[in-house]
Design goal:
Strand order of the largest sheet: 3-2-5-6
Largest sheet: 4 strands, antiparallel
Distance between the termini: 50 Å
Radius of gyration: 16 Å
Shape: globular
């Protein structure tokens, strides 16, 4: 019975959430990942989305592109994965953005509104 309830209600009320992630020089932070954590009162929700070559992202909670429940979220931006294992990895932005507690990023997802969030990360 619980499984049926979850399938019927897990995606209810999800809102589309989109945005962009730009580096300090205005270039897109392509290959990064945006993660929202928080949500409605009493429920912990995690949603994520990959940053595309143009800097855009779209968040998913349960399945690709499904959106995010309304609520307040702390945000972190994870850097692109290491491409060359032989070279020293240098993140394109400050490591403070890789952590919910230090990123300084927080957004509120609102029902029935345009939830588009521009994010600028610095070095």
């Amino acid at each position: 019975m619980l499984v049926i309830w979850c399938f019927a209600g897990c995606g209810a009320g999800l809102q589309p959430v989109r945005g962009t992630v730009k580096l300090a020089d205005g270039k897109p932070a392509a290959g990064s990942q945006v993660v929202f954590e928080g949500g409605p009162e009493g429920k912990k929700v995690s949603a994520r989305g990959d940053v595309h070559s143009d800097g855009s992202f779209e968040l998913s909670t349960y399945k690709p592109g499904d959106g995010v429940p309304p609520g307040t979220y702390k945000v972190q931006v994870n850097p692109p994965p290491m491409v060359n294992a032989e070279a020293a990895y240098v993140s394109p932005f400050n490591a403070k953005y890789n952590n919910f507690q230090t990123s300084g990023l927080e957004f509120e997802v609102k029902a029935g509104q345009k939830n588009e969030f521009p994010i600028q990360v610095t070095k």
